[in-house]
């Protein structure tokens, strides 16, 4: 039986098309599963899609490099998708002008604390330098996190997984934590979700309304810029 | 749709070219994003930047389905199982601890700064 599947599979395996179909199919299935779970943060569609795709690759005995040779065509779109974040950034530009001091300070402090505490905690617990550098940009939106990780010598795949799980974590606890701190302002809820939890938390916080969603979009794009600028010099402090 | 996609790819290319030429330590797509945002804000006449409908459609489609684009990179963890096995404690503790610290630091700073500068408007 296994041999029969392998015999059918192996002539298909070298084509990039196969792995694109597996990747997109896994994502569509994951979105359905997420809907069936009432869009719970833990049933994150990206996480499910990654687990499904990884299972298929492992079950067929293929290596990651064979998979990526096909899936790189999906991965390539991360570039234009990152550039597309300019649209929500420009659209919500007036909020930058009206809340300049609050946004600027929160961005600077939040970004530096996230980067440094990520590196320092890995180091303090005996983790390797490559893992520490992979941890540094984890709170920023995944495409930028992957690019920064590559730039500073981290492991991009590890950073991608950390960014997604970190986003799920922020989405699950962020709003409860802010309520405990007695913070109710929707602008703060939105911006914090965007800066620390990027896309996953931003989707969750947008249930508060348009103002929260606008500040979350700003948080994602602005922290993307700040983290891309600040991580290389901060990472150089750790040898 | 195609016109918008062209603009996104062109800004991405411009960002990569600038990064190469000036040896900037910032990823090319981030430079491209900044260039496009500056372009949109600088060429707006009203209070809010006007986004060409073509660009808006492409950008919204890409952003709404961004999750799909992380899957190839994320599936790379299967090549990292030895790192995860050997260093699961520093990875897990740092991810949780650093995310918590980031949330508290960002929220408190913005809360205090907004209260100071905006009179606590809701």
Helical fraction of chain A equals over 70%
| CA gyration radius of chain B, whole angstroms | 20 Å
Beta content of chain A: under 5%
Mean pLDDT of chain B: 88
Radius of gyration of chain A over alpha carbons? 19 Å
**Ends distance of chain A:** 52 Å
Instruction: Using the alpha-carbon principal axes, give the shape of chain A.
Output: globular
Mean pLDDT of chain A: 89
Extract low-pLDDT stretches of chain B: none
Characterization of the model:
The complex is a heterodimer of chains A (239) and B (122). Chain A is mainly α and 239 residues long. Chain A has 2 domains: 2-76, no CATH class; 91-235, no CATH class. Helices cover 80% and strands 0% of the residues of chain A. Chain A is built from 13 helices and no strands. Chain A has helices at residues 2-12, 16-36, 45-59, 64-75, 78-84, 86-91, 93-98, 100-124, 129-135, 142-152, 156-180, 186-205, 210-235. Chain A is globular. The mean pLDDT of chain A is 89. Chain B is mainly α and 122 residues long. Chain B has 2 domains: 1-64, no CATH class; 79-122. Helix content of chain B is 77%, strand content 0%. Chain B contains 6 helices and no strands. In chain B, helix 1 crosses helix 2 (28-42) and helix 1 packs across helix 3 (53-64). The radius of gyration of chain B is 20 Å and the shape is extended. The two termini of chain B are 38 Å apart. Classes of the chains: A mainly alpha (239), B mainly alpha (122).
């Amino acid at each position: 039986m296994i041999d029969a599947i392998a015999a059918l599979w192996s002539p298909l395996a070298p084509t990039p098309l196969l792995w694109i179909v597996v990747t997109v199919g896994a994502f569509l299935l994951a979105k359905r599963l997420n809907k069936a779970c009432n869009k719970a943060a833990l049933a994150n569609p990206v996480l499910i899609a990654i687990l499904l795709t990884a299972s298929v690759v492992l079950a067929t005995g293929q290596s990651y490099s064979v998979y990526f040779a096909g899936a790189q065509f999906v991965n390539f779109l991360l570039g234009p998708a990152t550039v597309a974040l300019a649209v929500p950034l420009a659209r919500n530009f007036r909020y930058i002008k009206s809340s300049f001091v609050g946004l600027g300070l929160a961005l600077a402090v939040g970004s530096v604390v996230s980067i440094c505490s990520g590196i320092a905690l890995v180091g303090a617990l005996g983790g390797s330098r490559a893992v520490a550098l992979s941890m540094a940009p984890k709170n920023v939106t995944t495409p930028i996190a992957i690019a920064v990780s590559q730039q500073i010598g981290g492991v991009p795949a590890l950073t991608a997984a950390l960014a997604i799980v970190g986003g799920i974590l922020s989405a699950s606890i962020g709003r409860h934590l802010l309520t405990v701190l007695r913070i109710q302002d929707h602008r703060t809820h939105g911006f914090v979700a965007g800066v620390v939890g990027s896309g996953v938390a931003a989707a969750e916080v947008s249930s508060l309304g348009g103002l929260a969603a606008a500040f979350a979009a700003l948080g994602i794009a602005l922290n993307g810029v700040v983290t891309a600028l600040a991580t290389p010099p901060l990472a150089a402090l750790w040898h | 749709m195609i016109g918008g996609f062209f603009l996104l790819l062109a800004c991405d290319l411009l960002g990569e070219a600038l990064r190469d030429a000036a040896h900037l330590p910032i990823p090319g797509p981030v430079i491209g994003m900044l260039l496009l945002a500056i372009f949109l804000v600088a060429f707006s006449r009203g209070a809010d930047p006007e986004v060409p409908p073509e660009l808006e459609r492409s950008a919204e489609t890409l952003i709404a389905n961004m999750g799909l684009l992380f899957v190839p990179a994320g599936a790379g963890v299967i090549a990292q199982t030895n790192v995860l096995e050997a260093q699961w404690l520093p990875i897990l503790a740092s991810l949780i601890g650093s995310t918590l610290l980031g949330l508290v630091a960002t929220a408190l700073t913005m809360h205090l700064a907004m209260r100071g500068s905006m009179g606590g408007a809701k």
